[in-house]
Amino acid sequence: ILDQNKNTILDIQDTPQWRTEVYGFGVRGDLTDDYYDPRRGFRLDIGRWWSPPPSSQDPDFYRIEYNATAYLPLGKRSTWVFNYFRSDAHVVRMGSTDRAAIEEQQGLNCSAIPDPIQQANCFNEVDSVVDNIIAANTYGTATGLGGTSKLRSYPENRFSGAHTVFYGTEIRWTLTEEARPFDICIAKDVRTVLQVAAFYEMGSVADLREDLGKVYRSSYGAGFRMVTASGIVFRADVASGREGIETTIIFGYPWEPL
User: What is the pLDDT of residue 108?
Assistant: First the structure.
């Protein structure tokens, strides 16, 4: 457990380990002009996701998700993209809300710290951690915000709760369209499109549905993309937000479902 300055408050020993399985199914409606690099049209994904709870103390829930993306052409080669995403957790069985049992399960033992001031800080942080676990065990957890696709200026899964809503817009300017082979140490393909992009994103999470949208966080930034003939998109983004700047180098356009 770290404080806001990334100093260690509690180094958990013998942390619990488990293996997670994820089952999902969904449907996609695609009315775009190109599956891999759309310039116009509309795309809608609806999915249901479920993971078996690792133990009887963990909640049993599933997620229903909607991901809608609209592509508006700008001239002959560029496009303006709009995205809406919604994720909701539906609890079948609540998990444990017993604080002592959760602390034991997670290995959260502040009493072993000899310094009284550090011990007091540890107890405060552990209380926050346990509160978050109790909320997740009570309401479930939807897809979070932060990372390489949604709210890109924040770390992966920075914001999480039982309900998530997200809005994003991105202008993609096409610089070149040509078939040019390339062969580098990690990839061999044919480059077809080079793009630059500017984007703005905002999203909200909450455990209670009625609280969703009361607090929003946002990100904005720019990126560079290379589309290949095989359908792979090489993407590099730099995003800024309230907590600083994050850089992303990854495959695939943002906002696409798994």
Answer: 77
